[in-house]
Design goal:
By secondary structure, the protein is α+β, with helices and mostly antiparallel strands. The protein has two helices and four strands. Strands 2-3-1-4 form a four-stranded antiparallel β-sheet, with helices on one face.
């Protein structure tokens, strides 16, 4: 398993409970694919630098986890078709940055 960091932006019109449910859904997606969550850091609602899919702000969340490299494509596939996550970036961390 390799260490990964996922940053994603949730639609701003969701209330706090719906945002928390989305965070739990993404964490469950990672765990279902054999990942182990290390840290979840909600950054809160922020203004975007530029408009993305007609959105000017969004709720930012960063998750750090370990995941088998073969399962990364499945996690990204599900995030791409998500109704509430409208942007994400998944990067592999260096082994020394654990």
């Amino acid at each position: 398993m390799s260490p990964y960091e996922l940053m994603y932006i949730v639609k701003p019109e969701l209330d706090d409970q719906a945002v928390q449910q989305e965070i739990e859904r993404v964490s469950q997606l990672i765990q279902t694919n054999g990942g182990q969550i290390k840290k979840v850091t909600p950054w809160g609602k922020r203004r975007l630098a530029y408009s993305v899919k007609d959105q000017r702000e969004g709720y930012y969340v960063v998750e750090e986890f370990d995941l088998d490299q073969a399962k990364v494509t499945e996690v990204e596939r599900v995030l791409k078709i998500s109704d509430t996550v409208f942007r994400h970036l998944l990067v592999r961390q260096d082994e020394g940055n654990k």
